[in-house]
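Why should sequence recovery work at all? Because a backbone constrains its sequence more than one might expect. Tight turns favour small or flexible residues, buried strands favour hydrophobic ones, and helices have their own preferences. The token representation captures these environments compactly. In the example below, the structure is given first.
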């Protein structure tokens, strides 16, 4: 897509920046996917552009499966908001601590107990990594010496979680075990935008969890809460086909997202 076409696609946002909401996934969108999540980095050039976007537009936020505090530490821009644990945590711009829905918080210890029971010697032998996301626990098998065997072990964990009344959600070489209450980026975004004066909203994402955000923006537009929803799919080899099929605009990987950011702040 040429710069001119990209600028035209972003016209509804650029027309009234003060009443525009711009929302980004982080991993695979702002930051390239890496073998170990702790090694992820937002390129400095991307971070600089995002800071410019934050100064120009009314609402700017990152929506991540990571904990909100970890998302802020990764992106390192205090002037934007962070929705962590797929929207279960909200860390608004300027806040020092995130707020977690009390109904979700009640499940945190049970989720952690499940993770402790699942953390067996066999799982460690397979090099499955367990990530604490507050009310969510994630099991990663990316980079395991035998990814097929690791995936089989995680399939068993998923079955046990569902038998225990918990919910499971699959991503790019990761299984998340969640409380049996609604936790998704769509619900988080809808609640986050509820008390804002936003007319147009855009979401940029690359994975299955980002489809919930796409659907939420469409619902907000259908309900008349915003006049326009813009869904940007980030194309990747591992991403689900629905990301590009449902998107209004498609960019290629994090470099394409950087071009999108540049177009948002171009004069």
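From this structural description, the recovered sequence reads:
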């Amino acid at each position: 897509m040429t710069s001119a076409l990209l600028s035209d696609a972003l016209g509804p946002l650029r027309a009234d920046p003060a009443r525009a909401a711009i929302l980004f996934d982080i991993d695979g969108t702002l930051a390239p996917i890496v073998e170990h999540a702790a090694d992820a980095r937002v390129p400095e050039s991307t971070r600089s552009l995002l800071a410019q976007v934050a100064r120009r537009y009314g609402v700017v936020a990152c929506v991540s499966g990571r904990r909100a505090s970890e998302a802020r530490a990764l992106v390192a821009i205090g002037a934007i908001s962070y929705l962590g644990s797929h929207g279960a945590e909200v860390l608004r711009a300027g806040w020092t601590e995130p707020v977690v829905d009390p109904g979700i918080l009640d499940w945190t210890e049970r989720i952690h107990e499940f993770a402790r029971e699942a953390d067996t010697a066999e799982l460690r032998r397979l090099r499955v990594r367990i990530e604490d996301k507050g009310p969510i626990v994630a099991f990663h098998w990316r980079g395991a010496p035998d990814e097929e065997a690791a995936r089989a072990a995680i399939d068993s964990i998923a079955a046990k979680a569902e038998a225990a009344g918990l919910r499971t959600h699959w991503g790019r070489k990761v299984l998340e075990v969640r409380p049996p209450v609604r936790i998704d980026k769509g619900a988080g975004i809808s609640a986050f935008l509820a008390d804002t004066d936003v007319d147009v909203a855009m979401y940029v994402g690359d994975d299955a969890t980002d489809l919930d955000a796409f659907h939420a923006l469409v619902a907000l537009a259908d309900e008349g809460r915003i006049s326009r929803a813009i869904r940007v799919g980030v194309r990747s080899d591992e991403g689900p086909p629905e990301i590009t099929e449902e998107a209004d605009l498609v960019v290629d990987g994090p470099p394409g997202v950087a071009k999108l950011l540049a177009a948002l702040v171009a004069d």
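A few observations help interpret the result. The chain has a mean pLDDT of 93.
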